[in-house]
Amino acid sequence: MTGMVALYIFMLAAFTGYEVISRVPVILHTPLMSGSNFVHGIVLVGAMVALGGAHTPLEKAIGFVGVLLAAGNAVGGYVVTERMLEMFKSSGSGGARRTH
Amino acid sequence: MPVSAETLIQASYFVTAVLFIMGLKRMSSPRTARSGILWAGAGMLVATLVTLLYPGISTENYPLIIAAIVVGTILAWWSGKRVAMTDMPQMIALYNGMGGGAAAAIAAVELYRGESHGYAVSSLAVLGGIIGAVSFGGSLIAFGKLQGLINRSLRFPGQQVINLLILAAAIVLGGAVALELDTAPAVVTGFFVLALVLGVTMTLPIGGADMPVVISLYNALTGLAVGFEGFVLNNAAMIIAGTVVGSAGTLLTQLMAKAMNRSLGNVLFSGFGDTGGATTGTVSGSLKPIEASDAGVMMAFAQKVIVVPGYGMAVAQAQHKIWELSQLLIDRGVTVKFAIHPVAGRMPGHMNVLLAEAGVPYDLIADLDEINSEFETADVALIIGANDVVNPVARTDKSSPIYGMPILNADKAKNVIVIKRGKGAGFSGIENALFYLDNARMLYGDAQKAAAELIQAIKAV
Hints:
The complex is a heterodimer of chains A (100) and B (461).
Chain A lengths: L2 H20 L6 H11 L3 H10 L4 H31 L13
Helix pairs in contact in A: 2-4, 3-4
Chain B lengths: L4 H22 L6 H19 L10 H21 L5 H26 L5 H28 L12 H20 L6 H19 L7 H23 L2 H24 L4 H7 L21 H9 L3 E6 L1 H6 L2 H13 L3 E6 L9 H9 L6 E3 H4 L8 E5 L8 H4 L18 E6 L19 E5 L2 H14 L1
Parallel strand pairs in B: 1-2, 1-4, 2-3, 4-5, 5-6
């Protein structure tokens, strides 16, 4: 991937993020923030590559922490987002009396 | 034709990027939101599995990778399943900080290796490293504050100057590394330590009520850091996902800051969102208490009641009782609506999540623009643990620190009942003129207990 192509990807992705979110109702702000929090958990694949190529003990230690943190970001982000979205019901869907 | 691992990985990342964007899109409507996270989750799973095939991974490091994933997954799964809905803001801050830390770790591994990457790549690694480390340090402090581990907001004269000096020192060391003037491990270490310290010292003075903006900002920053490290690793999935989150998070942060009528710089550098410190305006009139039985009768015979929840409802875990109360009223033929201010609570949309947990259908919940014209026709506005977001001085008093902040016009309702724990002022230390109005009555007590008393009162009617 050349630098220019990467720059184009960056630009298009930035606009995509802005457009996808711009018309979100307030009631979904939390799940959406939490959902995007999950999406940047993709850092996991980068951390795996970094740890995979580590040679010295220092690199391995940092890489290990990186993968651990990234897995926490991805999994934690997924679990809480899913839990929150599960609760959103309209009065038509019969969820009004739902209890935990 | 045999497919190489490289091709398979690139193709899978492409699919992942599509799933992420579609997933986020679906999350922007209540009807499809649930499936949105499933789509994004599938994308993550595909990317993670296929990355195990990456040719650059040395076999001796596989056990480390698997161990780290397993430990991280178990800890996050366990904590994510257990956390109470009221504690969601700090949990999200924590997971977000972990992502920032991971991005910084990638940068650290690359930079410690000391190989020449070229200036552009090194600069991006450094940039992602500092942003990720700031987000990591800052999110940990935000977690500590929201969890109640850090109770005071540390603030002293010259604090901003010191933060600027730390930032300047981090930029100098980062610049030396990026331009390959000095890539000694000590310099790299110094750079990361300074960046972590900066995240901590930046966040320490910020008060709890500003947390919606701060959490949202660190979410955007982590996204950006992930995107930059994606450039370093030549990983398109990270570039796309990180950048999408970075720009989406920036937009959300702007919305939050706008809802408080403050600039982002003001939130970060003024240390305003905290108890005490600010001026106390003078308000005429007196606070008029009301008994729960009288308040209950007032609501039982109302045509329309608008409930305004705030952080006090979250603290008291009163959302279930409030919904029980509302259902009683609805059964009596009263129209009940919930009015949510964008920055009520401690993260964007915090109140919506709590009400959803209690089972309140989302079509009864309205945001500021939808509901403000309706207060005039409401018989009762029931304020539960909300304060500054209903303070009319934001409209009238130019000298007030919250002047110009869009508020819920609860004062326009025929009667206002305020459930409040004590007589203190809100986070800004500003007296709430609403409480002193002729049509306002104070119902003192814990929100959950007060709601239970109101339920008894309405049942007795």
